[in-house]
Amino acid sequence: MIDTSVQLAPSHVKGLLLKNPVITASGTFGYGMEYSQLFDIQKLGAIVCKGTTLKSREGNPQPRLVETASGLLNSVGLENIGVEAVVRDKASIWAQWHVPVIVNIAGENMDEYAQVATRLEGVPGVSGIEVNISCPNVKSGGMECGTDPKIAAEVTAAVKAATSLPVIVKLSPNVTDIVEIAVAVCQAGADALCLINTVRGMTLDIKKRRPSLGTMMGGLSGPAIKPIALYMVYKVAGVAKVPIIGCGGISCAEDALEFIMAGASAVQVGTATLSKPQAALDVLEGIKQFAEREGIGNLRDIVGIARVQ
Amino acid sequence: MKQVSAKIISNTEVMPGCYLLCAEAPDIAAMAGPGQFVMVKCGDKLTLRRPFSITSVTNSGLYILYSLIGKGTLWLTQRRKGKELDLLGPLGNGFYIEPATKNLLLVAGGIGVAPLVFLAQQAIGREKSVTLLLGARTAAGLYPTKFLPAGVQTVVTTEDGSRSRKGMVSDILPDYTDQADQIYACGPVAMYQAIAEQIQKQKKEKSIQVSLEIRMGCGLGACYSCSIKTKNGMKQVCQDGPVFDMNEIIWQEVKI
Protein backbone atom coordinates (compact mmCIF):
# COMPACT_ATOMS: atom_id res chain seq x y z
CA MET A 1 0.00 0.00 0.00
CA ILE A 2 1.30 3.39 -0.98
CA ASP A 3 1.57 6.12 1.65
CA THR A 4 -0.42 8.98 0.14
CA SER A 5 -0.39 11.29 3.13
CA VAL A 6 0.91 14.79 2.62
CA GLN A 7 1.80 17.58 5.01
CA LEU A 8 0.91 20.84 3.30
CA ALA A 9 2.17 23.18 6.04
CA PRO A 10 5.35 21.56 7.42
CA SER A 11 6.65 24.73 9.03
CA HIS A 12 3.31 25.66 10.60
CA VAL A 13 2.72 24.84 14.26
CA LYS A 14 -0.68 23.19 13.56
CA GLY A 15 0.29 21.82 10.18
CA LEU A 16 -2.17 20.71 7.51
CA LEU A 17 -1.94 16.96 7.21
CA LEU A 18 -3.95 15.37 4.42
CA LYS A 19 -4.51 11.64 4.12
CA ASN A 20 -4.11 11.95 0.38
CA PRO A 21 -3.11 14.70 -2.06
CA VAL A 22 -6.37 15.13 -3.99
CA ILE A 23 -8.39 18.23 -3.13
CA THR A 24 -11.53 19.65 -4.71
CA ALA A 25 -10.95 23.17 -6.00
CA SER A 26 -12.76 26.25 -4.83
CA GLY A 27 -15.79 27.34 -6.84
CA THR A 28 -16.59 23.94 -8.29
CA PHE A 29 -17.49 22.06 -5.12
CA GLY A 30 -19.75 24.49 -3.25
CA TYR A 31 -19.46 23.91 0.48
CA GLY A 32 -18.94 20.17 0.09
CA MET A 33 -22.35 18.94 1.18
CA GLU A 34 -23.82 19.47 -2.30
CA TYR A 35 -21.94 16.38 -3.47
CA SER A 36 -22.35 14.21 -0.38
CA GLN A 37 -25.32 12.32 -1.87
CA LEU A 38 -23.27 11.28 -4.90
CA PHE A 39 -20.09 9.85 -3.40
CA ASP A 40 -18.17 9.55 -0.14
CA ILE A 41 -16.63 13.00 0.14
CA GLN A 42 -14.81 11.91 3.31
CA LYS A 43 -12.37 10.04 1.05
CA LEU A 44 -11.06 13.30 -0.40
CA GLY A 45 -7.74 14.70 0.74
CA ALA A 46 -9.41 18.02 1.48
CA ILE A 47 -12.22 20.26 0.29
CA VAL A 48 -11.74 23.92 -0.57
CA CYS A 49 -15.04 25.74 -0.27
CA LYS A 50 -16.50 28.49 -2.43
CA GLY A 51 -14.62 31.82 -2.31
CA THR A 52 -15.84 33.65 0.77
CA THR A 53 -15.96 37.40 1.35
CA LEU A 54 -16.77 39.52 4.39
CA LYS A 55 -20.28 40.35 3.18
CA SER A 56 -22.40 38.21 0.88
CA ARG A 57 -21.97 39.07 -2.80
CA GLU A 58 -24.45 38.87 -5.69
CA GLY A 59 -21.76 38.18 -8.27
CA ASN A 60 -21.85 39.13 -11.94
CA PRO A 61 -24.71 39.42 -14.43
CA GLN A 62 -25.64 36.49 -16.66
CA PRO A 63 -24.37 34.87 -18.80
CA ARG A 64 -21.69 33.58 -16.47
CA LEU A 65 -20.60 30.48 -18.37
CA VAL A 66 -19.35 29.63 -21.84
CA GLU A 67 -18.01 26.27 -22.85
CA THR A 68 -14.86 26.51 -24.97
CA ALA A 69 -12.63 23.98 -26.73
CA SER A 70 -11.50 21.67 -23.90
CA GLY A 71 -12.38 24.32 -21.37
CA LEU A 72 -14.80 26.60 -19.67
CA LEU A 73 -14.96 30.36 -19.24
CA ASN A 74 -16.71 31.66 -16.15
CA SER A 75 -17.54 35.02 -14.70
CA VAL A 76 -19.45 34.01 -11.58
CA GLY A 77 -17.86 36.97 -9.81
CA LEU A 78 -17.50 35.55 -6.33
CA GLU A 79 -21.19 35.22 -5.59
CA ASN A 80 -21.21 33.83 -2.07
CA ILE A 81 -23.14 33.80 1.18
CA GLY A 82 -20.52 35.76 3.16
CA VAL A 83 -18.33 34.66 6.03
CA GLU A 84 -21.02 35.01 8.74
CA ALA A 85 -23.30 32.53 6.97
CA VAL A 86 -20.35 30.21 6.36
CA VAL A 87 -19.52 30.18 10.06
CA ARG A 88 -23.17 29.85 11.07
CA ASP A 89 -24.52 27.37 8.51
CA LYS A 90 -21.61 25.43 7.05
CA ALA A 91 -18.73 25.15 9.52
CA SER A 92 -20.79 23.29 12.12
CA ILE A 93 -21.43 20.59 9.51
CA TRP A 94 -17.76 20.52 8.47
CA ALA A 95 -16.78 20.06 12.11
CA GLN A 96 -18.41 16.60 12.00
CA TRP A 97 -16.41 15.52 8.94
CA HIS A 98 -13.12 13.65 8.80
CA VAL A 99 -12.10 15.46 5.64
CA PRO A 100 -10.42 18.80 6.31
CA VAL A 101 -12.17 21.85 4.86
CA ILE A 102 -10.11 24.81 3.72
CA VAL A 103 -11.96 28.11 3.34
CA ASN A 104 -11.06 30.12 0.25
CA ILE A 105 -11.19 33.81 1.09
CA ALA A 106 -11.29 36.96 -1.01
CA GLY A 107 -11.64 40.65 -0.34
CA GLU A 108 -12.03 43.95 -2.06
CA ASN A 109 -9.19 45.42 0.00
CA MET A 110 -6.51 44.42 2.47
CA ASP A 111 -8.72 44.97 5.51
CA GLU A 112 -11.40 42.67 4.17
CA TYR A 113 -9.00 39.78 3.72
CA ALA A 114 -7.82 40.22 7.30
CA GLN A 115 -11.36 40.57 8.63
CA VAL A 116 -12.55 37.37 6.92
CA ALA A 117 -9.53 35.50 8.30
CA THR A 118 -10.18 36.95 11.76
CA ARG A 119 -13.81 35.79 11.64
CA LEU A 120 -12.69 32.25 10.83
CA GLU A 121 -10.25 32.14 13.73
CA GLY A 122 -11.07 29.36 16.16
CA VAL A 123 -14.13 28.21 14.20
CA PRO A 124 -14.44 24.41 14.51
CA GLY A 125 -14.55 22.73 11.12
CA VAL A 126 -12.12 25.08 9.42
CA SER A 127 -8.69 23.52 8.89
CA GLY A 128 -6.99 26.13 6.76
CA ILE A 129 -7.31 29.25 4.67
CA GLU A 130 -6.71 29.58 0.96
CA VAL A 131 -6.22 33.18 -0.10
CA ASN A 132 -7.58 34.11 -3.51
CA ILE A 133 -5.34 37.02 -4.48
CA SER A 134 -6.69 37.08 -8.01
CA CYS A 135 -9.69 39.28 -7.43
CA PRO A 136 -9.77 42.94 -8.41
CA ASN A 137 -8.32 45.29 -5.83
CA VAL A 138 -10.58 48.29 -5.58
CA LYS A 139 -8.05 50.48 -3.79
CA SER A 140 -5.40 50.04 -6.43
CA GLY A 141 -7.75 51.00 -9.24
CA GLY A 142 -9.30 47.60 -9.93
CA MET A 143 -5.99 45.95 -10.67
CA GLU A 144 -5.75 42.38 -9.44
CA CYS A 145 -3.83 42.38 -6.19
CA GLY A 146 -2.27 39.10 -7.27
CA THR A 147 -0.45 40.75 -10.13
CA ASP A 148 1.77 42.99 -8.00
CA PRO A 149 4.38 41.22 -5.84
CA LYS A 150 4.28 43.94 -3.20
CA ILE A 151 0.48 43.92 -2.80
CA ALA A 152 0.37 40.11 -2.98
CA ALA A 153 2.90 39.98 -0.12
CA GLU A 154 0.94 42.54 1.89
CA VAL A 155 -2.29 40.55 1.55
CA THR A 156 -0.46 37.38 2.59
CA ALA A 157 1.09 39.09 5.62
CA ALA A 158 -2.25 40.60 6.62
CA VAL A 159 -3.98 37.21 6.54
CA LYS A 160 -1.09 35.51 8.34
CA ALA A 161 -1.27 38.12 11.09
CA ALA A 162 -5.02 37.59 11.46
CA THR A 163 -5.08 33.80 11.73
CA SER A 164 -3.41 30.92 13.48
CA LEU A 165 -4.51 28.56 10.70
CA PRO A 166 -2.21 27.40 7.90
CA VAL A 167 -2.41 29.79 4.94
CA ILE A 168 -2.29 28.70 1.31
CA VAL A 169 -1.95 31.48 -1.27
CA LYS A 170 -3.58 30.78 -4.64
CA LEU A 171 -1.71 32.54 -7.41
CA SER A 172 -3.02 34.11 -10.57
CA PRO A 173 -1.45 33.09 -13.89
CA ASN A 174 -2.30 36.50 -15.36
CA VAL A 175 1.11 37.92 -14.56
CA THR A 176 4.39 38.53 -16.35
CA ASP A 177 6.44 36.50 -13.89
CA ILE A 178 4.67 34.14 -11.50
CA VAL A 179 7.98 33.23 -9.85
CA GLU A 180 8.38 36.79 -8.60
CA ILE A 181 4.90 36.69 -7.02
CA ALA A 182 5.54 33.24 -5.53
CA VAL A 183 8.78 34.38 -3.92
CA ALA A 184 7.10 37.50 -2.51
CA VAL A 185 4.20 35.63 -0.87
CA CYS A 186 6.55 32.97 0.51
CA GLN A 187 8.66 35.67 2.13
CA ALA A 188 5.45 37.14 3.56
CA GLY A 189 4.79 33.85 5.32
CA ALA A 190 2.62 31.69 3.05
CA ASP A 191 2.57 28.11 4.34
CA ALA A 192 1.81 26.68 0.91
CA LEU A 193 1.10 27.86 -2.63
CA CYS A 194 -1.68 26.84 -4.96
CA LEU A 195 -1.30 27.45 -8.66
CA ILE A 196 -2.94 28.35 -10.87
CA ASN A 197 -6.23 30.22 -10.76
CA THR A 198 -8.11 30.75 -14.04
CA VAL A 199 -6.56 32.33 -17.11
CA ARG A 200 -8.26 35.45 -18.42
CA GLY A 201 -10.10 35.04 -21.71
CA MET A 202 -13.21 35.77 -23.72
CA THR A 203 -15.46 34.55 -26.50
CA LEU A 204 -17.89 36.49 -28.69
CA ASP A 205 -21.44 35.72 -29.67
CA ILE A 206 -21.31 36.50 -33.39
CA LYS A 207 -25.10 36.57 -33.75
CA LYS A 208 -25.50 39.15 -31.01
CA ARG A 209 -22.23 40.87 -31.98
CA ARG A 210 -21.32 41.04 -28.32
CA PRO A 211 -19.07 39.26 -25.82
CA SER A 212 -20.65 35.99 -24.70
CA LEU A 213 -20.17 36.64 -21.00
CA GLY A 214 -22.12 39.30 -19.14
CA THR A 215 -18.85 40.81 -17.92
CA MET A 216 -17.10 40.67 -21.31
CA MET A 217 -14.17 38.60 -20.04
CA GLY A 218 -13.87 35.69 -17.65
CA GLY A 219 -11.59 33.02 -16.27
CA LEU A 220 -10.66 30.02 -18.39
CA SER A 221 -10.39 26.63 -16.71
CA GLY A 222 -10.38 23.00 -17.75
CA PRO A 223 -7.98 20.86 -19.81
CA ALA A 224 -7.21 23.83 -22.09
CA ILE A 225 -5.10 25.48 -19.37
CA LYS A 226 -3.28 22.39 -18.10
CA PRO A 227 0.00 22.96 -19.97
CA ILE A 228 0.07 26.58 -18.72
CA ALA A 229 -0.53 25.49 -15.15
CA LEU A 230 2.01 22.67 -15.34
CA TYR A 231 4.72 25.00 -16.65
CA MET A 232 4.04 27.50 -13.89
CA VAL A 233 4.15 24.79 -11.20
CA TYR A 234 7.42 23.54 -12.68
CA LYS A 235 8.94 27.02 -12.64
CA VAL A 236 7.77 27.92 -9.14
CA ALA A 237 8.79 24.54 -7.70
CA GLY A 238 12.36 25.48 -8.55
CA VAL A 239 12.35 28.35 -6.07
CA ALA A 240 9.53 27.79 -3.57
CA LYS A 241 10.49 26.51 -0.14
CA VAL A 242 6.88 25.59 0.73
CA PRO A 243 4.63 22.85 -0.65
CA ILE A 244 2.86 23.54 -3.93
CA ILE A 245 -0.67 22.49 -4.81
CA GLY A 246 -1.07 22.06 -8.56
CA CYS A 247 -4.35 23.17 -10.08
CA GLY A 248 -5.54 23.79 -13.62
CA GLY A 249 -7.23 21.35 -15.97
CA ILE A 250 -6.59 18.21 -13.96
CA SER A 251 -9.18 15.64 -14.91
CA CYS A 252 -7.46 12.27 -14.58
CA ALA A 253 -4.69 10.57 -12.60
CA GLU A 254 -2.17 11.03 -15.42
CA ASP A 255 -2.73 14.80 -15.27
CA ALA A 256 -2.27 14.81 -11.50
CA LEU A 257 0.90 12.72 -11.75
CA GLU A 258 2.38 15.21 -14.20
CA PHE A 259 1.85 17.99 -11.66
CA ILE A 260 3.31 15.88 -8.86
CA MET A 261 6.36 14.99 -10.92
CA ALA A 262 6.75 18.68 -11.78
CA GLY A 263 6.99 19.50 -8.09
CA ALA A 264 3.46 19.68 -6.68
CA SER A 265 2.85 17.94 -3.35
CA ALA A 266 -0.89 17.88 -3.89
CA VAL A 267 -3.43 18.67 -6.61
CA GLN A 268 -6.82 20.29 -6.92
CA VAL A 269 -9.54 19.04 -9.23
CA GLY A 270 -12.04 21.68 -10.29
CA THR A 271 -13.78 21.93 -13.64
CA ALA A 272 -13.66 18.15 -14.17
CA THR A 273 -16.04 17.76 -11.22
CA LEU A 274 -18.80 19.54 -13.13
CA SER A 275 -19.20 16.74 -15.66
CA LYS A 276 -17.86 13.93 -13.46
CA PRO A 277 -18.80 14.60 -9.83
CA GLN A 278 -16.49 11.88 -8.54
CA ALA A 279 -13.55 13.01 -10.72
CA ALA A 280 -11.34 13.77 -7.70
CA LEU A 281 -11.77 10.26 -6.28
CA ASP A 282 -11.08 8.76 -9.71
CA VAL A 283 -7.85 10.78 -9.80
CA LEU A 284 -6.90 9.44 -6.36
CA GLU A 285 -7.66 5.86 -7.34
CA GLY A 286 -5.61 6.25 -10.53
CA ILE A 287 -2.64 7.63 -8.59
CA LYS A 288 -2.75 4.64 -6.24
CA GLN A 289 -2.91 2.19 -9.14
CA PHE A 290 0.02 3.90 -10.86
CA ALA A 291 2.05 3.75 -7.66
CA GLU A 292 1.31 0.07 -7.26
CA ARG A 293 2.25 -0.72 -10.85
CA GLU A 294 5.44 1.31 -10.64
CA GLY A 295 6.46 0.12 -7.17
CA ILE A 296 6.23 3.54 -5.55
CA GLY A 297 5.93 3.18 -1.77
CA ASN A 298 5.59 6.82 -0.86
CA LEU A 299 4.11 9.52 -3.03
CA ARG A 300 6.69 11.99 -1.71
CA ASP A 301 9.32 9.99 -3.60
CA ILE A 302 8.01 11.22 -6.94
CA VAL A 303 7.30 14.87 -6.05
CA GLY A 304 9.44 16.88 -8.48
CA ILE A 305 11.06 13.73 -9.87
CA ALA A 306 10.75 14.93 -13.47
CA ARG A 307 12.66 18.12 -12.82
CA VAL A 308 15.73 18.57 -14.98
CA GLN A 309 18.58 19.58 -12.72
CA MET B 1 -30.32 12.64 -6.66
CA LYS B 2 -28.36 9.86 -8.28
CA GLN B 3 -25.78 9.43 -10.99
CA VAL B 4 -26.68 6.45 -13.15
CA SER B 5 -25.72 4.80 -16.38
CA ALA B 6 -29.02 4.43 -18.22
CA LYS B 7 -29.63 2.30 -21.28
CA ILE B 8 -31.33 4.13 -24.15
CA ILE B 9 -34.66 2.49 -24.99
CA SER B 10 -35.49 4.81 -27.88
CA ASN B 11 -34.34 8.09 -29.35
CA THR B 12 -36.45 9.29 -32.24
CA GLU B 13 -37.23 12.53 -34.05
CA VAL B 14 -40.83 13.35 -33.20
CA MET B 15 -40.94 16.81 -34.80
CA PRO B 16 -38.42 18.38 -37.20
CA GLY B 17 -35.24 18.85 -35.13
CA CYS B 18 -36.89 17.64 -31.93
CA TYR B 19 -36.23 14.26 -30.39
CA LEU B 20 -37.88 12.16 -27.73
CA LEU B 21 -35.42 10.00 -25.85
CA CYS B 22 -36.38 7.24 -23.44
CA ALA B 23 -33.77 5.91 -21.01
CA GLU B 24 -33.96 3.09 -18.50
CA ALA B 25 -33.42 4.87 -15.19
CA PRO B 26 -35.88 3.47 -12.65
CA ASP B 27 -34.15 5.06 -9.65
CA ILE B 28 -34.32 8.57 -11.08
CA ALA B 29 -37.83 8.01 -12.45
CA ALA B 30 -39.06 6.91 -9.01
CA MET B 31 -37.73 10.04 -7.32
CA ALA B 32 -38.59 12.57 -10.02
CA GLY B 33 -41.38 15.13 -9.96
CA PRO B 34 -42.68 17.36 -12.77
CA GLY B 35 -40.46 20.36 -13.47
CA GLN B 36 -37.32 18.60 -12.30
CA PHE B 37 -34.47 17.94 -14.69
CA VAL B 38 -31.50 15.70 -15.37
CA MET B 39 -27.92 16.63 -16.30
CA VAL B 40 -26.78 14.49 -19.23
CA LYS B 41 -23.14 13.84 -20.00
CA CYS B 42 -22.94 14.24 -23.76
CA GLY B 43 -19.77 12.32 -24.52
CA ASP B 44 -16.26 12.74 -23.12
CA LYS B 45 -15.24 15.78 -25.13
CA LEU B 46 -17.55 18.44 -23.72
CA THR B 47 -16.66 20.23 -20.49
CA LEU B 48 -20.22 20.54 -19.24
CA ARG B 49 -23.21 18.29 -18.86
CA ARG B 50 -26.44 19.48 -20.47
CA PRO B 51 -29.65 20.05 -18.48
CA PHE B 52 -32.94 18.62 -19.80
CA SER B 53 -36.41 18.70 -18.26
CA ILE B 54 -37.92 15.33 -17.55
CA THR B 55 -40.82 15.02 -19.99
CA SER B 56 -42.48 12.03 -18.41
CA VAL B 57 -41.74 8.92 -16.40
CA THR B 58 -42.72 5.27 -16.45
CA ASN B 59 -41.99 2.55 -13.89
CA SER B 60 -38.65 1.84 -15.46
CA GLY B 61 -37.62 4.90 -17.37
CA LEU B 62 -37.84 8.53 -18.18
CA TYR B 63 -38.44 10.54 -21.32
CA ILE B 64 -36.55 13.63 -22.42
CA LEU B 65 -37.81 15.89 -25.20
CA TYR B 66 -34.97 17.93 -26.68
CA SER B 67 -34.20 19.98 -29.75
CA LEU B 68 -30.98 19.84 -31.71
CA ILE B 69 -29.28 23.14 -30.98
CA GLY B 70 -25.57 22.51 -30.49
CA LYS B 71 -22.71 20.12 -29.91
CA GLY B 72 -24.25 18.39 -26.89
CA THR B 73 -27.61 17.74 -28.46
CA LEU B 74 -25.98 16.70 -31.75
CA TRP B 75 -24.06 14.03 -29.84
CA LEU B 76 -27.31 12.99 -28.19
CA THR B 77 -29.19 12.59 -31.49
CA GLN B 78 -26.47 10.18 -32.63
CA ARG B 79 -26.83 8.00 -29.55
CA ARG B 80 -28.67 4.86 -30.59
CA LYS B 81 -30.96 2.47 -28.79
CA GLY B 82 -29.04 0.15 -26.45
CA LYS B 83 -26.22 2.61 -25.73
CA GLU B 84 -25.59 3.88 -22.21
CA LEU B 85 -26.26 7.43 -21.08
CA ASP B 86 -24.71 9.02 -17.97
CA LEU B 87 -27.53 10.82 -16.14
CA LEU B 88 -27.50 12.90 -12.98
CA GLY B 89 -30.84 13.59 -11.36
CA PRO B 90 -33.54 14.29 -10.57
CA LEU B 91 -32.44 17.85 -9.90
CA GLY B 92 -34.07 21.12 -8.96
CA ASN B 93 -37.34 22.33 -7.59
CA GLY B 94 -40.31 21.37 -9.74
CA PHE B 95 -43.93 22.39 -10.18
CA TYR B 96 -46.23 22.33 -7.21
CA ILE B 97 -49.90 21.42 -7.33
CA GLU B 98 -51.95 22.75 -4.42
CA PRO B 99 -54.02 19.91 -2.93
CA ALA B 100 -57.22 21.97 -3.34
CA THR B 101 -56.60 22.68 -7.03
CA LYS B 102 -59.14 21.12 -9.37
CA ASN B 103 -58.34 22.76 -12.70
CA LEU B 104 -54.83 23.22 -14.04
CA LEU B 105 -54.05 25.44 -16.99
CA LEU B 106 -50.79 24.57 -18.76
CA VAL B 107 -49.30 27.00 -21.27
CA ALA B 108 -46.61 25.64 -23.59
CA GLY B 109 -44.55 27.50 -26.17
CA GLY B 110 -42.75 25.22 -28.63
CA ILE B 111 -40.36 22.78 -26.95
CA GLY B 112 -41.49 24.32 -23.65
CA VAL B 113 -44.10 21.59 -23.56
CA ALA B 114 -41.36 19.25 -22.25
CA PRO B 115 -41.83 19.55 -18.46
CA LEU B 116 -45.58 20.22 -18.75
CA VAL B 117 -46.26 16.73 -20.12
CA PHE B 118 -44.99 15.28 -16.83
CA LEU B 119 -47.08 17.78 -14.87
CA ALA B 120 -50.18 16.77 -16.85
CA GLN B 121 -49.36 13.13 -16.19
CA GLN B 122 -49.19 13.74 -12.44
CA ALA B 123 -52.28 15.98 -12.34
CA ILE B 124 -54.43 13.47 -14.23
CA GLY B 125 -53.15 10.75 -11.92
CA ARG B 126 -54.55 12.86 -9.09
CA GLU B 127 -57.86 13.19 -10.92
CA LYS B 128 -57.47 16.87 -11.71
CA SER B 129 -58.72 18.49 -14.88
CA VAL B 130 -55.94 19.64 -17.22
CA THR B 131 -56.19 22.11 -20.08
CA LEU B 132 -53.10 22.56 -22.24
CA LEU B 133 -52.64 25.60 -24.46
CA LEU B 134 -50.10 24.33 -26.95
CA GLY B 135 -48.45 26.86 -29.24
CA ALA B 136 -45.76 26.65 -31.89
CA ARG B 137 -44.50 28.68 -34.87
CA THR B 138 -45.85 26.16 -37.37
CA ALA B 139 -47.90 22.97 -37.32
CA ALA B 140 -44.68 20.96 -37.69
CA GLY B 141 -43.42 22.32 -34.38
CA LEU B 142 -46.42 21.06 -32.39
CA TYR B 143 -45.77 18.27 -29.95
CA PRO B 144 -47.79 15.28 -31.20
CA THR B 145 -50.91 14.93 -29.08
CA LYS B 146 -50.56 11.13 -29.19
CA PHE B 147 -47.67 11.52 -26.72
CA LEU B 148 -49.83 13.47 -24.25
CA PRO B 149 -51.48 11.68 -21.34
CA ALA B 150 -55.08 10.67 -22.03
CA GLY B 151 -57.59 13.14 -20.68
CA VAL B 152 -55.68 16.35 -21.38
CA GLN B 153 -57.84 18.93 -23.14
CA THR B 154 -55.56 20.49 -25.71
CA VAL B 155 -56.06 23.84 -27.46
CA VAL B 156 -53.64 24.57 -30.28
CA THR B 157 -52.34 27.80 -31.78
CA THR B 158 -49.73 28.32 -34.50
CA GLU B 159 -48.07 31.61 -35.33
CA ASP B 160 -48.49 31.08 -39.08
CA GLY B 161 -51.97 29.63 -38.80
CA SER B 162 -50.92 26.33 -40.38
CA ARG B 163 -52.89 24.47 -37.71
CA SER B 164 -55.91 25.58 -35.69
CA ARG B 165 -56.04 29.17 -34.52
CA LYS B 166 -53.48 31.65 -35.82
CA GLY B 167 -51.59 33.50 -33.13
CA MET B 168 -49.81 32.90 -29.87
CA VAL B 169 -50.91 30.95 -26.80
CA SER B 170 -50.85 34.20 -24.82
CA ASP B 171 -53.57 35.61 -27.14
CA ILE B 172 -56.09 32.96 -26.14
CA LEU B 173 -54.98 32.80 -22.50
CA PRO B 174 -57.68 35.22 -21.18
CA ASP B 175 -60.42 32.80 -22.35
CA TYR B 176 -59.08 30.11 -20.02
CA THR B 177 -57.79 31.84 -16.91
CA ASP B 178 -61.17 32.11 -15.15
CA GLN B 179 -61.64 28.38 -14.80
CA ALA B 180 -58.01 27.74 -13.80
CA ASP B 181 -57.06 27.33 -10.16
CA GLN B 182 -53.37 27.29 -11.01
CA ILE B 183 -51.44 28.23 -14.13
CA TYR B 184 -48.16 26.72 -15.26
CA ALA B 185 -46.05 27.89 -18.20
CA CYS B 186 -42.93 26.88 -20.06
CA GLY B 187 -41.59 28.59 -23.15
CA PRO B 188 -39.51 31.56 -24.24
CA VAL B 189 -39.16 34.62 -22.01
CA ALA B 190 -41.18 36.69 -24.50
CA MET B 191 -44.10 34.31 -23.92
CA TYR B 192 -43.81 34.74 -20.14
CA GLN B 193 -43.85 38.49 -20.51
CA ALA B 194 -46.95 38.31 -22.74
CA ILE B 195 -48.64 36.09 -20.16
CA ALA B 196 -47.71 38.50 -17.36
CA GLU B 197 -49.27 41.38 -19.32
CA GLN B 198 -52.47 39.45 -20.01
CA ILE B 199 -52.89 38.52 -16.36
CA GLN B 200 -52.21 42.08 -15.29
CA LYS B 201 -54.92 43.33 -17.66
CA GLN B 202 -57.41 40.97 -16.08
CA LYS B 203 -56.55 42.35 -12.66
CA LYS B 204 -56.78 38.91 -11.12
CA GLU B 205 -54.54 37.34 -8.54
CA LYS B 206 -53.32 34.17 -10.19
CA SER B 207 -50.42 32.03 -9.17
CA ILE B 208 -48.32 31.24 -12.24
CA GLN B 209 -45.37 28.89 -12.07
CA VAL B 210 -42.79 29.15 -14.83
CA SER B 211 -39.75 27.04 -15.68
CA LEU B 212 -36.57 28.90 -16.61
CA GLU B 213 -33.80 27.79 -18.91
CA ILE B 214 -30.22 28.91 -18.38
CA ARG B 215 -26.67 27.65 -18.83
CA MET B 216 -25.71 25.49 -15.87
CA GLY B 217 -22.40 24.23 -14.57
CA CYS B 218 -22.94 21.62 -11.89
CA GLY B 219 -26.75 21.35 -11.78
CA LEU B 220 -26.83 20.91 -8.01
CA GLY B 221 -26.14 24.28 -6.41
CA ALA B 222 -22.37 24.09 -6.07
CA CYS B 223 -20.94 26.41 -8.71
CA TYR B 224 -23.25 29.45 -8.74
CA SER B 225 -23.03 29.74 -12.53
CA CYS B 226 -26.80 29.84 -13.04
CA SER B 227 -27.72 32.36 -10.33
CA ILE B 228 -30.16 35.11 -11.19
CA LYS B 229 -31.33 38.15 -9.30
CA THR B 230 -35.00 37.82 -8.30
CA LYS B 231 -37.37 39.95 -6.25
CA ASN B 232 -36.48 37.64 -3.35
CA GLY B 233 -32.72 37.94 -3.78
CA MET B 234 -30.21 35.78 -5.61
CA LYS B 235 -31.54 32.36 -6.63
CA GLN B 236 -29.80 29.40 -8.20
CA VAL B 237 -31.90 28.27 -11.16
CA CYS B 238 -30.58 24.71 -10.81
CA GLN B 239 -31.50 24.32 -7.16
CA ASP B 240 -34.04 26.98 -6.13
CA GLY B 241 -35.62 26.58 -9.60
CA PRO B 242 -35.89 25.86 -12.45
CA VAL B 243 -39.54 26.45 -11.49
CA PHE B 244 -40.28 29.86 -10.00
CA ASP B 245 -43.34 31.87 -9.19
CA MET B 246 -43.67 34.33 -12.05
CA ASN B 247 -44.03 37.24 -9.62
CA GLU B 248 -40.49 36.59 -8.39
CA ILE B 249 -38.86 37.06 -11.77
CA ILE B 250 -37.13 40.25 -12.87
CA TRP B 251 -37.40 40.02 -16.66
CA GLN B 252 -34.18 41.80 -17.60
CA GLU B 253 -32.27 39.32 -15.42
CA VAL B 254 -33.49 36.31 -17.36
CA LYS B 255 -33.58 37.78 -20.88
CA ILE B 256 -30.16 36.53 -21.81
Describe the structure.
The complex is a heterodimer of chains A (309) and B (256). With 309 residues, chain A is α/β, with parallel strands linked by helices. Chain A contains 8 helices and 16 strands. Chain A has helices at residues 83-94, 110-120, 149-162, 178-187, 226-237, 253-262, 272-275, 279-294; strands spanning 6-7, 17-18, 22-24, 46-48, 65-68, 71-74, 101-105, 128-132, 167-170, 192-195, 199-201, 204-205, 210-211, 218-221, 244-247, 266-269. The relative contact order of chain A is 0.17. With 256 residues, chain B is an alpha/beta fold. Chain B folds into 3 domains: 2-91, Translation factors (Elongation Factor Tu (Ef-tu), domain 3, Beta Barrel), CATH 2.40.30.10; 96-211, 3-Layer(aba) Sandwich (Rossmann fold); 213-256, Dihydroorotate dehydrogenase, electron transfer subunit (Dihydroorotate dehydrogenase B (pyrk subunit), domain 3, Ribbon). Chain B is 20% helix and 35% strand. Chains A and B meet through strand 5, strand 6 and helix 7 of A and strand 14 of B.
How does the SSE layout of this entry go?
The complex is a heterodimer of chains A (309) and B (256).
Chain A: E1 6-7, E2 17-18, E3 22-24, E4 46-48, E5 65-68, E6 71-74, H1 83-94, E7 101-105, H2 110-120, E8 128-132, H3 149-162, E9 167-170, H4 178-187, E10 192-195, E11 199-201, E12 204-205, E13 210-211, E14 218-221, H5 226-237, E15 244-247, H6 253-262, E16 266-269, H7 272-275, H8 279-294
Parallel strand pairs in A: 3-4, 3-16, 4-7, 7-8, 8-9, 9-10, 10-15, 15-16
Antiparallel strand pairs in A: 1-2, 5-6, 6-14, 11-14, 12-13
Helix pairs in contact in A: 2-3, 3-4, 5-6, 6-8
Chain B: E1 2-15, E2 18-24, H1 26-31, E3 37-41, E4 50-53, E5 56-57, E6 61-67, H2 71-77, E7 84-91, E8 103-109, H3 113-125, E9 129-136, E10 153-158, E11 165-166, H4 169-172, H5 174-177, E12 182-186, H6 189-202, E13 208-211, E14 227-230, E15 233-236, E16 243-245, H7 251-254
Parallel strand pairs in B: 8-9, 8-12, 9-10, 10-11, 12-13
Antiparallel strand pairs in B: 1-2, 1-7, 2-6, 3-4, 3-7, 5-6, 13-16, 14-15
